[in-house]
Amino acid sequence: MTKLIFFDTETTGNTEKDSLVQIAYKNGDENFTGLYKPLVKIPPEASAVHHITNKMVADKPAFQESGDQPVIKKLFEDENNVVVAHNAPFDLMIIKKEGIEPKKFICTLRVIRDLDKDGKIDRYNLQYLRYLLDLDVDATAHDAMGDVIVLEKLFEYLKNRMMQEEKLNETEVIKQMIEISSHPSLLRTFNFGKHLGKKIEDVLTTDRGYLEWLLSQKLASDQIDEDWIYTLKHYLGK
């Protein structure tokens, strides 16, 4: 029987160079949150988001040295389990650096992008969706467990919507979510910059050079931007 593990990480930043600070997961009725000393200092920009400071982790073990790593590794890598995260590629990259590679995952960010085919949603970040979709949840934003609680509610919303709209049962929905999550999203609309709100296919005809420039920036960046790289290559025919 498939078991869903909802999880979130807090880190020293949002690039490939950053490290794990906190991990939280919900496994049925089991809730877990762990705090660790990262391999690099927590910069103030990161503390301003998750409110975890270097003083708070000064006496904590590194994740690899904690007793939590082997327990989480066994749970997340179980072939019967599916881990669920919002913007999963980033969280998976962070835990891969800690020796954990789940067999199956669902990215709720990619799933909701796939369902929003008309581009009606302005933003897809977790807390924005929490209020846009009026998810009934009592949780602290940008705290790992708080985000996990919101994540589970978002997953339930997406599951129920897919079951209703596509006439699928729960097993079929989970299978489809895994498939959607396994490849980058094809984005349709700019949600930033000088072409804010415009369709990418329209910008291709009026300002192709901008798409070329943006692709070069994304490729040179150390941030995890698989969806934008995939999208720009698609429209540019590369």
Protein model, in words:
- There is one protein chain.
- The protein is an alpha/beta fold and 238 residues long.
- The protein folds into two domains: 3-181, 2-Layer Sandwich (Nucleotidyltransferase, domain 5), CATH 3.30.420; 184-238, no CATH class.
- It has helices at residues 44-50, 54-57, 68-77, 88-96, 108-115, 126-132, 144-166, 170-181, 200-206, 208-220, 226-236, and strands spanning 3-11, 20-27, 30-35, 81-85, 105-107.
- It has a five-stranded mixed beta sheet, sandwiched between helices.
- A hairpin with a 2-residue loop joins strand 2 and strand 3 (30-35).
- The longest helix is centred in the middle third of the chain and has 23 residues, at 144-166.
- The chain is globular and about 55 Å long.
- The mean pLDDT is 92.
Quick recap:
The protein has eleven helices and five strands; from the N terminus they run E-E-E-H-H-H-E-H-E-H-H-H-H-H-H-H. By secondary structure, it is an alpha/beta fold.
List its salient traits:
single chain; 238 residues; alpha/beta; Nucleotidyltransferase, domain 5; 5-stranded mixed sheet; globular
